[in-house]
Specification:
Number of strands: 6
Distance between the termini: 19 Å
Helix content: 40-55%
Oligomer: single chain
Largest sheet: 6 strands, mixed
Order of helices and strands: HHHHHHHHEHEHEHEHEHE
Shape: globular
């Protein structure tokens, strides 16, 4: 029997966010068609399907009924540029810390706040406040020690990115990892198609990540990593990696129970995640799929 991924909170959230997500001037017939199709998707959802998979189906229905989806290109470029303007300052904090990988990981986790799919209004001032407090956040010492030990023994690391802006901080984390473990082969995988403000190859190129390590896209437009939907090349890289680092809630939702050596790093932005892990909202999490 497959593991259960879907829950009532996710269904309620999808209804809240997407059931009325149509143009104000949309014709009555189109609105009814869209609403009925969205409800049909939710009614037919299997317990082992994740919320990002359902959101993709809803988005495709919206595109079919109402036309092109919202374009996040300008927002993505703006947040990439914003975090890039802080890059030297943040990396200075990282290099001056007691453990460059741990500190870089903290900043990378904070970057997960930049999520237009979960956070209704991503506030730049609040992002700056989170970044200022990044060195103070807690990471489970036993999990981090295990991660660091495994990196030292590994030949390959696959890094699964999540959002724009955040990808700049991911780049600094990868830089710190490569500095400590120069013989480690690092492969970065981004989204294959535009989805919300998730990082794609365009974002990787804008922030210069592609000039540091190998970057490929997963050939898929789901806001996560569904192993049965991504490209054969991406699947092979994940299947053969010694260590996998997956950023964001979407990657956690889609990869959970994969029985691979996946370390998840994200911020509990929605109440369901905060309740699930018994922490306050906007708490950073660093956990491993095999030990949850």
């Amino acid at each position: 029997m497959k593991n259960i991924k879907l829950n009532e909170e996710c269904i309620h959230c999808i209804i809240s966010k997407y059931l009325k997500d149509y143009p104000e001037n949309a014709a009555y017939e189109k609105r009814i068609e869209y609403i009925q199709d969205v409800l049909a998707i939710l009614a037919a959802a299997k317990p082992y399907e994740s919320a990002p998979e359902l959101v993709e189906r809803v988005s495709l229905v919206r595109e079919r009924v109402f036309g092109a989806p919202k374009d996040f290109t300008a927002i993505k470029k703006r947040f990439n540029a914003l975090v890039m303007s802080l890059e030297d300052e943040i990396y200075g904090e990282i290099t001056n810390s007691d453990n460059i990988i741990k500190t870089a990981l903290k900043y990378s986790m904070i970057g997960n706040y930049i999520d237009f799919g979960v956070v209704e209004n991503v506030d730049e001032k609040r992002l700056m406040e989170f970044l200022d407090k990044a060195p103070e956040i807690e990471i489970r010492e036993d999990e981090f020690t295990q991660f660091e030990t495994e990196l030292g023994n590994a030949q390959s690391l696959v890094f699964l990115t999540d959002n724009c802006g955040e990808v700049v901080l991911d780049k600094l984390l990868i830089k710190a990892i490569c500095s400590r473990f120069p013989n480690l082969n690092v492969e970065v995988i981004v989204r294959g198609l535009p989805v919300l403000n998730d990082a794609t190859m365009d974002d990787a190129k804008q922030v210069g990540l592609d000039s540091m390590v190998s970057v490929t896209d997963n050939g898929c437009g789901i806001a996560g990593t569904c192993l049965d939907r991504i490209s054969a090349d991406s699947r092979e890289k994940i299947d053969t990696a010694d260590v996998i680092l997956a950023k964001g809630q979407g990657n956690f939702e889609t990869l959970r129970f994969c029985e691979k050596n996946v370390y998840y790093a994200f911020m509990c932005k929605c109440k369901m995640f905060a309740d699930k892990f018994g922490v306050p909202q906007y708490t950073g999490m660093f956990i491993n799929d095999l030990r949850i």
